[in-house]
Write a structure and sequence with these properties.
- This protein is an all-beta fold.
- The chain contains no helices and 11 strands.
- The chain has strands at residues 2-6, 9-11, 17-24, 32-38, 45-50, 56-58, 66-71, 76-81, 90-100, 103-108, 112-116.
- Strands 2, 4, 5, 6, 9, 10 and 11 form a 7-stranded mixed beta sheet that branches. Strands 1-3-8-7 form a 4-stranded antiparallel beta sheet, with no helix packed on it.
- The chain is globular.
- The model has no long low-confidence stretch (mean pLDDT 97).
Length: 118
């Protein structure tokens, strides 16, 4: 089982980045996919989530700027980030989750660093 993120980097305030998450080793289409982020010294927070049927939800501070999507044929999830702000700087993690009777399965990627700075 693997989740591999890519697309992070350094961007100026107001810029854009697109993060990708490639899944393998499990049936990605049956899992909800999410993006979390974590700044050093802070708790990991949920940024955006997309369910198996495409329903999305966002952290209030990214609504209108970030868009989560998925391509089940490509076993991938994406996070389009526009209007980036310095406070968006963090390591971004891809997550896949599915609830089975009596248990919850979570897979995590290794993270990709996004730095927003001039």
């Amino acid at each position: 089982v693997q989740l591999v993120e890519s697309g992070g980097g350094l961007v100026q305030p107001g810029g854009s980045l697109r993060l990708s998450c490639a899944a393998s080793g499990f049936t990605f289409s049956t899992y909800a996919a999410s993006w979390y982020r974590q700044d050093p010294g802070k708790q990991r927070e949920l940024v955006a989530r997309i369910t198996r049927d495409g329903t999305t939800d966002y952290l209030d501070t990214v609504k209108g700027r970030f868009t989560i999507s998925r391509d089940n044929a490509e076993n991938s999830a994406y996070l389009q980030m526009n209007g980036l702000k310095p406070e968006d700087t963090a390591v971004y993690y891809c997550n896949a989750e599915r609830v089975f009777p009596g248990r919850r399965v979570n897979y995590w990627g290794q993270g990709t660093l996004v730095t927003v700075s001039s």
